[in-house]
Amino acid sequence: MDKTISIGDGWELPPLRSLYDFLLESSRFQLPNFRDFEKWGNRVVNNLVYYQTNYLYMCIAILLVVASVNPMKMIVGISTVIAVWGECIYLFNERESLLKFKRTYPQVGVILTIVCASYAIYTINSVLFVLFGILLSICVTFIHASLRLRNVKNKLANKIEGMGFKRTPMGVVLNYFGMKEEIFT
């Protein structure tokens, strides 16, 4: 069995599956039964868990390809997303020191909101470009997870890795969306 990689603090990254196992075994792809959502969902979740390292690298590669088309748009779009995110964190954070600052200078929040909103509207093209790259990588991942049939090694690895499900990045994401370990039993 392949060995997982420890990335600290109890987190593990499952091994990178071979290209033959991930993509080149063409007889192992099939359209899912669209009438049976439970089987389709199990296939997607099990593939997301089994191939999660491959999906991570694939998403990074897709984002790099999209960024290489127009690097400046990507940089501006990412900076806009970070600015809006930072502004939201500032507005909704309730730490005592920050609350004291907000009460003392309430106009800072208003000015920050106006500046961030203006910047976001001015750079909406770049933000959409970044969101396109993210959405493209998510769509390609979901399509692969939907079409890829599970093999014996996949089923066995999912049973074994089901115990450490919450310690992997995909396990955290799936737990956030309400997927439970019972799927593997």
From TrEMBL:
Keywords from the named record: Membrane, Transmembrane, Transmembrane helix
UniProt entry tagged with the keyword Transmembrane: yes
InterPro entries reported for this sequence: Prenylated_rab_accept_PRA1
Bilayer disposition of the protein: Multi-pass membrane protein
Transmembrane segments: 48-68, 74-92, 104-122, 128-147
Predominant location category: membrane
One Gene Ontology cellular component: membrane
Pfam families tied to this protein: PRA1
Family designation: Belongs to the PRA1 family.
Name the record gives this protein: PRA1 family protein
Species lineage: Eukaryota, Metazoa, Ecdysozoa, Arthropoda, Hexapoda
